[in-house]
């Protein structure tokens, strides 16, 4: 039987581009994992029972440790499974710095292209949810603006695609060289989203033959070895596990955080989401971990990246 303290469970759904980034990461490391398919739209009661309210996709679970945001997920996969490394040529710091752009401005641009190009064809509930999540409170006007400005938005995407084409000009198989790494997963999910969800995506990408060759190389990596798991079984795994022990030292924190403090954590962009409450276990420049207790799952540690999240005293 699988040890729940080591079993990787990914709460995701097939169409999610950010989940695809993590699935590629699991493939790069050649890992076995269990997939819990979650709803595309809220409510997501079994997921938020684990997270305390966080509803974005994906979420990774290892026993009673819950990792929110792909930043936190990739960091934990590298810590828990260091070989093969996500950073085959070193430069981990540069990759994390670059990820703030791929996950931020570049992904936001892709979302505007995909949602804006769909126009009125988007189902109303999906448009409302994703529009609010990515475009803010004035999401309806944001979608209209994206549709009207689509040629400009595509021109802005064409530039970074040309940069990737140049990076691959020496015939390398992957962006950093002969071995795949986190940087490939970071860019691949954007390309995957463009190709699959933007009608003009295949034509746009066809302009960049080296990029398409790289895209096929990443696709051939696969997603590791996946098995299906029910949400009920995932909750049971959490209830029969204990969170891993963490050095709870909190030093030189700019916000004055201290171990044992009651805090709330939320994305630092207004997406209309529920904050997550808990007791601070550990905080560093990169991550924050809070303890929360659920009536079914028991003691849980919920892990967030520090970059991109706001922490406030409850």
UniProtKB/TrEMBL annotation:
Coiled coil: none annotated. Gene3D superfamilies: 3.40.30.110. Residues 6-85 form the GST N-terminal domain. CDD domains: GST_N_family (cd00570). This is Glutathione S-transferase N-terminal domain-containing protein. It comes from Roseibium algae.
């Amino acid at each position: 039987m699988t040890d729940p303290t080591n079993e990787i469970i990914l709460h995701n759904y097939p169409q999610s581009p950010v989940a695809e980034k993590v699935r590629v990461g699991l493939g790069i490391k050649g890992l076995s994992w269990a997939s819990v398919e979650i709803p595309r739209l809220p409510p997501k009661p079994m997921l938020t029972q684990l997270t305390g309210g966080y509803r974005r996709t994906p979420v990774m679970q290892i026993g009673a440790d819950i990792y929110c945001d792909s930043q936190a997920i990739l960091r934990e996969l590298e810590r828990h499974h260091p070989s093969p490394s996500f950073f085959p040529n070193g430069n981990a710091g540069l990759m994390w710095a670059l990820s703030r752009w791929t996950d931020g401005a570049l992904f936001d641009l892709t979302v505007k292209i995909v949602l804006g190009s769909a126009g009125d064809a988007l189902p109303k509930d999906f448009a409302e949810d994703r529009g609010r999540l990515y475009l803010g409170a004035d999401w309806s006007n944001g979608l209209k603006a994206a549709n009207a400005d689509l040629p400009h938005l595509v021109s802005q995407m064409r530039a970074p695609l040309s940069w990737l084409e140049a990076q691959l000009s020496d015939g390398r198989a992957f962006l950093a060289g002969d071995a795949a790494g986190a940087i490939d997963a970071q860019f691949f999910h954007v390309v995957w989203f463009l190709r699959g969800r933007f009608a003009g995506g295949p034509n746009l990408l066809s302009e960049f033959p080296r990029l398409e060759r790289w895209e096929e190389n990443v696709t051939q990596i696969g997603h590791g070895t996946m098995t299906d798991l029910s949400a009920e079984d995932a909750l049971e795994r959490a209830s029969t596990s204990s969170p891993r022990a963490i050095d709870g030292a909190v030093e030189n924190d700019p916000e004055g955080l201290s171990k044992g403090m009651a805090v709330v954590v939320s994305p630092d962009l207004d997406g209309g989401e529920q904050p997550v409450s808990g007791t601070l276990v550990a905080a560093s420049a990169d991550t924050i971990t809070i303890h929360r207790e659920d009536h079914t799952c028991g003691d849980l540690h919920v892990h967030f990246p520090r970059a991109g999240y706001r922490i406030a005293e409850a």
